[in-house]
Specification:
The complex is a heterodimer of chains A (383) and B (388).
Chain A lengths: L1 E5 L4 H12 L3 E8 L17 H14 L3 E5 L1 H17 L6 H20 L4 E3 L4 E5 L5 E5 L16 H4 L2 E2 L8 H10 L21 H9 L4 E5 L4 E5 L26 E6 L4 E5 L6 E11 L11 E6 L7 E9 L13 E7 L11 E6 L2 E13 H7 L1
Parallel strand pairs in A: 1-2, 1-4, 2-3, 4-7, 8-11
Antiparallel strand pairs in A: 5-6, 6-17, 8-9, 10-11, 12-15, 12-17, 13-14, 13-16, 14-15, 16-17
Chain B lengths: L2 E2 L10 H11 L10 H21 L6 E4 L2 H16 L7 E5 L4 H13 L3 E5 L9 H11 L3 E7 L11 H10 L4 E4 L11 H4 L3 E5 L10 E5 L24 H39 L4 E2 L12 E5 L5 H10 L2 E2 L15 H5 L4 H4 L2 E5 L6 H21 L3
Parallel strand pairs in B: 1-11, 3-4, 3-5, 5-6, 6-7
Antiparallel strand pairs in B: 2-8, 7-8, 9-10, 10-12
Helix pairs in contact in B: 1-8, 2-8, 3-4, 5-6, 8-12, 9-12
Classes of the chains: A alpha/beta (383), B alpha/beta (388).
Chain lengths: 383, 388
């Protein structure tokens, strides 16, 4: 096959490209320019898409012996990922920009361009496994090494996209082995630190970055009965489940720590309360996609596991697609149906905007964006 | 098969230049040393400077060797601007928008940090600077102009400026004019004294010499404050002089000057075939810059291809064994929309489909044929990939 290897400048994508070559494919390396900050250098483990990463990717391509190009997706990235990130936070939701990038850039804009230019597939260094079912349909599964599994961030991929993906690292038992392999292959990135955090916020200070983009506006911090406990400098800087940085000055009457329960962007208020109030009994949302073949009857209750963050543990759950009560509060304009998931045990730290990825065993079933949550406490109270 | 159609980026080192270069690299001694070894090196260097001066139509004392074209241009823009502030208030630089980044970025740096002012020099749709526009700008700004700088020939679209007329206008206002002749040398008759300008930048690797040596030609009447300070080896530059580079540059310039008429004639004919071939292969392609029978560099062809990204085309042609360019500016390999096309008034959507084909020594009809053969399929595919 003709394979486009997306090369970030890190060790995983470099080894993935090398394995694609070894598997006999015709491989071309492409680095995605996602920002235009040519002067930026990497500091510690933070940031990607810097000039240094581009040079690292090129050196890796040279050593592997494949042609290398830089494709500029900076305009698309700004519009689809960065602006979306700001808009979502401003609306009180907590987005995952890496998933958005996979959905809109890597496996959309890049993949489409690659196919149009004559490639058969895009190869990346993600730790996930592709399986073909008996009927020839692609399925996305967790990596065999659970600790490195990245299937969550790929949960947005559709059958059509999966059919054009190639993840050579999915069966690798550990990252250490990938680094050892990189060293054996003479790749200079063998010991390059892993990238963390959000690539377009190079110093890792998401709150400061958002304050700069969205601006600061003083608002109230309330308890769950509506009493004013203190003030904040912008509701967008808070995330559901957050404990640090509330600066309330005095402890709760019961002396227990308080957590952000809710962010209300329209009234610029933040609601805090005890940890147990964070326990979520039901999540629901829209904008879903199936990672492969859809279920025949998603309107019927089905057993699955739900995962709400890249590194969260999956929780057994029952799920279905249900009609939205026309009288209910509107969370998504124009939606008539929503995905509803009831985990067997309460979830913690769930925020609207997060992606819920559903699994059956190791297989990724699909995903949706969480629009609303129902507290486990009130569910129990109702029951 | 590998076809090289990017001679404007750099052109192959000529065999005879390489031999002379390697031989000169064996010369022992720093030309600034007083002993016999130093004197021999100095003699070799100065002979080379005289030969380069003869080829460029200037005097040896007017040549300041630099590390390349970019350094020569920086020395001209910054050095002359600084020198012009010594006895009067002259903050303004007159620079057209389609200059090489070496000029634009140096000027913007002066404006951002040194108090320089930038005044525009409007270009026409073909990136040509009309002498009337220069006159209007000089008249508008008055005595505060430090320097005018323009390309002799545009490195992207190949437009040749009316240099004698521009020089005459600048002279009327007694303002020094610097020419970026990096892309002109070897392709046009370049004669410093006859051009009537006060400063001119050139580079060896664009004419079959080695990378790493260029020169700023500075008339006796003009002073440039050095960019780097040290041993004072040259009029406007400190640093040990590159004897072997100077020898190689001199030979490359002599060959280019001696062969110019025949070379330019042959290259023009080949370029005309290329333009016709491209237009037949892709009738939608739009030739940018002046017509091929007009004031255009003989080896230059520049097109925009509607509905596709230049970098998609570049990639597909590269895969077909043909090396071309999307323009000149390059940051870590990231292609940006050409500021030259923007200065010519080309809309961004059209400018993104830009490709430059440049011919030079060793270019053959089969190179042109290979491009023309590969282009239709590349264009169809690149159109499918669309604009990112």
């Amino acid at each position: 096959m003709k394979i486009l290897a997306a090369m970030s400048g890190g060790v995983d994508s470099a080894v993935a490209a090398a394995r694609a070559v070894e598997a006999g494919h015709e491989v071309v390396g492409v680095h995605l320019a996602l920002s235009r900050m040519p002067g930026t250098l990497r500091t510690g483990s933070r940031g990607c898409c810097t000039i240094e990463d581009s040079m690292d990717a090129q050196r890796a391509a040279n050593i592997i012996g494949i042609p290398y190009y830089v494709w500029d997706f900076s305009d698309r990235f700004r519009a689809e990922v960065v602006d979306d990130f700001i808009a979502e936070y401003s609306a009180g939701r907590t987005p995952n920009p890496c998933m958005r990038c996979n959905e809109k850039i890597k496996f959309a804009a890049l993949l489409d361009k690659a196919i149009a230019l004559g490639f058969d597939a895009v190869c990346t260094g993600h730790y996930a496994t592709l399986v073909t079912d008996e009927a020839g349909h692609p399925e996305l599964h967790r990596a065999s090494a659970w600790a490195k599994d990245q299937s969550y961030v790929l949960g947005v991929l559709t059958a059509e996209q999966l059919a054009r993906c190639y993840f050579p690292l999915g069966e690798t038992p550990s990252k250490g082995l990938v680094r050892a392999e990189a060293e054996r292959r003479g790749l200079g990135v063998a010991h390059k630190p892993d990238s963390h955090d959000i690539c377009f916020i190079p110093d890792g200070d998401t709150r400061g970055w958002l304050a700069e983009k969205v601006g600061e506006k003083v608002g109230n911090i309330l308890d769950n009965e509506g009493a004013v406990l203190g003030q904040h400098r912008g509701a967008h800087s808070y995330t559901v489940g957050q404990r640090k940085g509330l600066s309330l000055g005095r402890p709760a009457p019961d002396g227990r720590p308080r957590f952000v329960l809710e962010v209300r962007p329209t009234s610029n208020t933040v609601v805090v309360g005890p940890r147990e109030a964070l326990a979520i009994g039901t999540i629901a949302g829209g904008r879903w996609s199936w990672a492969g073949q859809p279920l025949a009857h998603p309107e019927r209750d089905f057993e699955c596991e739900v995962q709400i963050r890249a590194h969260a543990d999956p929780v057994p759950a029952r799920a279905r697609i249900a009609r939205i009560d026309p009288e209910a509060e509107v969370y998504r304009e124009g939606a008539t149906e929503e995905f509803v998931v009831e985990p067997d045990e309460p979830l913690h730290g769930v925020a609207p905007g997060q992606t819920a990825v559903l699994y059956v065993g190791t297989r990724v079933l699909g995903q949706f964006t969480i629009d609303r949550t129902v507290s486990a406490v009130s569910v129990e109270a109702q029951a | 098969m590998s076809v090289y159609l990017d001679h404007a980026a750099t052109t192959p080192l000529r065999d005879e230049v390489r031999d002379a270069y390697v031989q000169a690299l064996a010369v022992v001694g720093n030309p600034a040393s007083i002993h016999s070894h130093g004197q021999r090196a100095k003699r070799t260097l100065e002979e080379a400077r005289e030969r380069l001066a003869a080829a460029l139509g200037c005097e040896p004392i007017e040549i300041t060797y630099t590390g390349g074209g970019t350094e020569a241009i920086n020395l001209a823009i910054k050095g002359i601007w600084w020198a012009r502030q010594r006895d009067a208030v002259r903050p303004t630089l007159l620079i057209p928008g389609a200059e090489h980044h070496a000029t634009i970025d140096a000027a913007e740096w002066l404006a951002a940090t040194q108090g320089a002012r930038l005044a525009p020099l409007p270009l026409d749709d073909n990136a040509r600077l009309a002498p009337t526009e220069l006159r209007a700008a000089l008249a508008a700004v008055g005595p505060q102009v430090a320097l005018v700088s323009t390309l002799w020939a545009n490195n992207e679209v190949g437009t040749v400026q009316p240099v004698p007329e521009l020089a005459a206008v600048a002279a009327e206002y007694a303002v020094p004019l610097h020419l970026d002749a990096v892309s002109a040398l070897g392709y046009l008759p370049v004669h410093f004294a006859r051009s009537g300008v006060q400063a001119m930048s050139v580079s060896a690797h664009k004419i079959g010499g080695p990378v790493g040596i260029g020169a700023l030609i500075l008339s006796r009447s003009v002073t440039a404050v050095p960019l780097q300070h040290g041993g004072g080896q040259q009029r406007a530059r400190s640093g040990t002089q590159d004897v072997a580079g100077a020898v190689a540059f001199a030979l490359a310039a002599e060959l280019a000057t001696a062969e110019l008429d025949e070379f330019a004639r042959r290259l023009s004919a080949l370029r005309d075939d290329l333009v016709r071939g491209v237009q037949e292969a892709v009738p939608d392609a739009v030739l940018r810059g002046v017509a091929i029978n007009g004031d255009r560099l003989p080896g230059n062809a520049h097109f925009t291809f509607p509905g596709c990204e230049g970098d998609s085309l570049l990639f597909l042609l590269d895969a077909a064994g043909v090396s071309v360019s999307t323009g000149s500016a390059c940051q870590a390999g990231v292609p940006e929309t050409s500021h030259v096309l923007t200065a010519m008034g080309v809309p961004e959507g059209e400018a993104r489909g830009a490709l430059r084909f440049t011919l030079g020594h060793g270019s053959t009809p089969s190179d042109v044929a290979a491009l023309v053969a590969a282009l239709p399929q590349a264009y169809t595919r690149a159109q499918q990939a669309g604009l990112a």
